[in-house]
């Protein structure tokens, strides 16, 4: 069975999630944007074995700590989709623009594609490509616990910004409608910022995607 714990990191309060298999104690960190001390403490406190870092997209608040953590712990970086290569290449400029400490460059061990499946311990997690906020944005669907880690695609009551380079509003709406909604109204999502919600709630009340 999968379990998770979410830790807000960086001045942007980005929701980094520690996800693990409670049979094997193998764990991943989804979007380790920074505050590596707090992330390491969360892993150690639960006596977990970190096996990889998973990225939804390559904005600095989500990916800024990945390079250093991967190097120091000898971990592979999985994701995002190759469409975010330009955001990884631009990590130094992102650091400057948002006043973050310099982020280490990294190369993902594996780019993700729509429909990929990742194994964590004795569980499987599905990957959906959800472009719009960034071209290479992916989400992680843990169907067995009805959870989806959606990064900056969808928030409780809002949706991701599309005014950055490579952003596309209509594409984001299409991603939400065709790739998130089919996971089911009762699926709880963990957004990149702010509180959890479920897809049914957003389909009814979120002004950006209501009734879609
Ligand atoms: Zn973002
Ligand atoms: Zn973000």
UniProtKB/TrEMBL annotation:
* Cofactors (names): Zn(2+)
In terms of superkingdom, the source organism counts as Bacteria
> Which SUPFAM superfamilies does this UniProt record tie to the protein?
Metallo-hydrolase/oxidoreductase (SSF56281)
UniProt keyword annotations, A-Z: Hydrolase, Metal-binding, Zinc
Instruction: Say yes or no: keyword Secreted present.
Output: no
According to the entry, every stretch annotated as the Metallo-beta-lactamase domain falls at 13-193
Q: Which GO terms describe its molecular function?
A: hydrolase activity; metal ion binding
UniProt keyword Transferase present: no
**Know the name of this protein?**
MBL fold metallo-hydrolase
């Amino acid at each position: 069975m999968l379990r998770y714990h979410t830790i807000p990191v960086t001045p942007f309060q980005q929701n980094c999630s520690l996800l693990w298999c409670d049979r094997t104690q193998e764990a991943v960190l989804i979007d380790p944007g920074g505050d590596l001390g707090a992330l390491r403490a969360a892993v150690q406190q639960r006596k977990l074995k970190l096996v990889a870092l998973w990225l939804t997209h390559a904005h600095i608040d989500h990916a800024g700590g990945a390079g250093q953590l991967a190097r120091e712990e000898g971990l592979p970086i999985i994701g995002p989709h190759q469409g975010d290569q330009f955001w990884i290449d631009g990590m130094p400029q992102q650091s400057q623009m948002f006043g973050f400490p310099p982020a280490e460059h990294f190369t993902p061990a594996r780019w993700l594609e729509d429909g990929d499946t990742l194994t964590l311990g004795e569980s499987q997690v599905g990957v959906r490509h959800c472009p719009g906020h960034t071209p290479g944005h992916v989400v992680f669907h843990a169907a067995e616990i009805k959870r989806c880690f959606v990064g900056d695609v969808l928030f409780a009551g809002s949706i991701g910004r599309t005014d950055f380079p490579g952003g596309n509003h209509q594409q984001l709406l299409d991603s939400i409608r065709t790739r998130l909604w089919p996971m089911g109204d009762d699926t709880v999502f963990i957004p990149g910022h702010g509180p959890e919600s479920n897809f049914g709630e957003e389909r009814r009340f979120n002004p950006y995607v209501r009734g879609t």
